[in-house]
Write a structure and sequence with these properties.
Layout (H helix, E strand, L loop, with lengths): L1 E4 L10 H4 L3 E3 L12 H11 L3 H4 L12 E4 L9 E3 H15 L9 E2 L19 H8 L14 E3 L9
Parallel strand pairs: 1-3, 1-5, 2-3
Antiparallel strand pairs: 4-6
Helix pairs in contact: 4-5
Length: 162
């Protein structure tokens, strides 16, 4: 499961082994460290689900999958505006090309949203720029992805062709 969010606390005791160093950033000037906490929370939820069962038993927790994280919501606000559609395409490309364990099947999770108000796209059932870009993005190997729309300020980077 690849979490596209605010990053991840790589040394978190419940996440570290399942993450196995697979944390990256869509921004060349920032690392993947989560300064907000949301990406770390989402990674924990994706990895463990509801922790009630695990915390109320003495049985070992058996994980059936690992996690990756790509920070796509910057902690700093760079000076070059880009849409989240572009940033998301970059984040997918970073996950697809940045892992030494290629090829790898991926499921992408992006639990971020933007409330649309008229006259923005998305209020009448049309695709938003973010979701249309995400649907159109084709990484090196097909991977499922679902997203929503917003705008972001980020340094210009482009995913490799392909």
């Amino acid at each position: 499961m690849c979490i596209l969010d605010t990053g991840i606390r790589q040394e978190h005791v419940l996440l570290k082994d399942a993450l196995a160093g697979r944390a990256q950033s869509a921004f060349p000037t920032e690392g993947p460290e989560d300064r907000n906490g949301h990406g770390t929370w989402m990674a924990g939820l994706a990895l463990y689900g509801d922790l009630d069962a695990a915390l109320t038993t003495n049985d070992p927790v058996r994980l059936t999958h690992g996690i990756e994280a790509v920070m796509l919501l910057p902690a700093k606000t760079p000076g070059t505006p880009r849409t989240f559609g572009e940033v998301t395409a970059d984040a997918v490309a970073v996950a697809e090309t940045g892992s030494v364990e290629q090829p790898r099947a991926r499921v992408f999770s992006m639990a971020v949203t933007k409330h649309s108000v008229r006259p923005e796209n998305g209020t009448d059932g049309t695709a938003t720029l973010w979701s249309a870009t995400s649907t159109r993005s084709r990484p090196a190997r097909p991977s499922p992805s679902a997203t929503t729309e917003s705008n972001c300020t980020a340094p210009p980077t482009r995913p490799p062709p392909g």
